[in-house]
Design brief:
Blueprint lengths: L3 E5 L9 H12 L7 E5 L17 H12 L3 E5 L9 H7 L2 E2 L3 E6 L2 E6 L9 H10 L2 H8 L3 H20 L10 H10 L4 E4 L6 E7 L2 E7 L7 E7 L3 E6 L2
Parallel strand pairs: 1-2, 2-3, 3-4, 6-7, 7-9
Antiparallel strand pairs: 1-10, 5-6, 8-9, 10-11
Bound molecules: ligand LP5.
Ligand LP5 binds next to helix 4 and helix 6.
Length: 242
Amino acid sequence: MRSETLFIADLHLDGNEPETIQAFTQFLENRATQAEALYILGDLFEAWIGDDDEQAALIPVKSALASLSKQGVSLYLQHGNRDFLLGTDFCQATGAKLLPESQKVSLYGTECLLMHGDSLCTDDVAYQQLRAQLHNAAWQQQFLAQPLAARYQAAASLRAQSQQATQAKAAEIMDVNQTAVVAAMRSHQVQHLIHGHTHRPACHQFDLDGQAAERWVLGDWQSQYNYLCCSATDWQWHCFDA
Ligand code: LP5
């Protein structure tokens, strides 16, 4: 019987980095098949400009996800700031269930909130303004109606602007804001939060309304392939080489 749940985020899969794609498909074909569920908490892809973009390099990723869900492993997906345009076609093709921005789950009796984490970076005012624009439904519809070439160009231009902007920002500004963390946890009545986005893997322990609380931050897949494994008895980080 499968009795563990795996969490990953920030893989930033990109056709130009076949090693990470291979490591991920191997992870799906081997380790993930032993779990009862796999949660991908955003930024599975480096940049997603629409489900109609059939990049050949990413076809093995879709196939491996589809195969995993066909084997009975529940597959859940949240949007990240790079792949907020992942939609129903992708989910249908892979068997993934798209979760809302904040999702409360019960992990073997522990209530836990799942988020990508970018909405918690409230000190990064320029990013939050950009995010509001990019999440606007009318803007998204208009963007997705453009030819692929135009979308590629817009995405590359935004990446360049973002890279320039992040170089000029202080690291603290690009981290989550503790008041926003506490507000999210309180509103969902949880003492546990798992998120990605900041690429600063850690387990932060703090007091929340007189009770012990934990914020687990997932690592990216740029420096080390890693996942969080939760069972009824413990939560543990795991790292592996391809
Ligand atoms: O991504 P990362 O971690 O390096 O930086 C993020 C924030 N940046 C972003 C932008 C993404 O990198 C771009 C992803 C493109 C994917 C394709 C999507 C579809 C194409 C859309 C084409 C318009 O998320 C960064 C944060 C950082 O995390 C830490 O939290 O700081 O935010 C910024 O850098 C934002 C800048 O401060 C402001 C940039 C202004 C650009 C104005 C462009 C206007 C275009 C508006 C379109 C509606």
